[in-house]
């Protein structure tokens, strides 16, 4: 059982920052190459899910890790509050429309897990419904993985309570980050312990495992995310398709 309070939010003390940044640059470049082969081959797809507390660095992970990917083969979708039409359907209806077709990398900035996180924290759903939804999520992800050859990466961006405060204050203090400021983030911060409990439930009950990414140091976040994705995509042994006959 994963207990988030027992997992560090900082890099191991013996890690060399400069060396790891060099490795990250190579991994990011390799990811760009693998994405182009995936797009050409059209046999696999990848779904990359980023979840984490406010200011945990979801946008930054997307920006830095996927910067060498070709825009034609990658998409990013951010899940917001459901619309009236979305509310009128089952909770996965709006999600299924955004999953990647073969050849594509689809990134979810927040995801279907919001429906057992914020809704549960605020008691908009009870524990029984959260359990039913968790079962549906597992079945949904298994369908994507086994029926459509979608490789699913799930990253929980693990930020400390103190670091989140620093990041939120930067959004007020630094002009180029003002656009990210949302007063509601401070209200959600008051529910920190409840969020940790709900995240632990989602992580421990998932069929497809999560990667817990320490993010107090953003350069370490970038390395872990890039390495995890590249290592898994390399196992697909993807190839550019040959020249058509005739």
CATH topology: Rossmann fold
Number of strands: 5
Spatial ordering of strands, largest sheet = 2-3-1-4-5
Contiguous low-pLDDT stretches (5 residues minimum) are none
Based on secondary structure, the structural category is: alpha/beta
The span between the termini is 57 Å
Integer tally of domains: 1
Q: Any idea what the shape is?
A: globular
Which CATH C-level class is it? Alpha Beta
CATH-assigned homologous superfamily: P-loop containing nucleotide triphosphate hydrolases
**Residue-averaged pLDDT:** 96
Helical residue percent band = 40-55%
What's the alpha carbon Rg, rounded to whole Å?
A: 19 Å
For the record, the CATH architecture stands as 3-Layer(aba) Sandwich
Q: Please work out how many helical segments DSSP would assign.
A: 10
Topology:
Elements (H helix, E strand, L loop, with lengths): L16 H25 L3 E8 L5 H8 L8 E5 L5 H4 L5 H4 L8 E5 L8 H4 L5 H21 L2 E9 L2 H13 L9 H7 L2 H13 L6 E4 L3 H17 L12
Parallel strand pairs: 1-3, 1-4, 2-3, 4-5
Structure description:
The protein is α/β, with parallel strands linked by helices and 246 residues long. It has helices at 17-41, 58-65, 84-87, 93-96, 118-121, 127-147, 161-173, 183-189, 192-204, 218-234, and strands at 45-52, 74-78, 105-109, 150-158, 211-214. It has one domain: Rossmann fold. The chain has 10 helices and 5 strands; from the N terminus they run αβαβααβααβαααβα. The chain has a 5-stranded parallel β-sheet with strand order 2-3-1-4-5, sandwiched between helices. Helix 1 (17-41) packs parallel to helix 10 and helix 2 packs across helix 10. The chain starts with 16 loop residues before the first helix and ends in a 12-residue tail after the last helix.
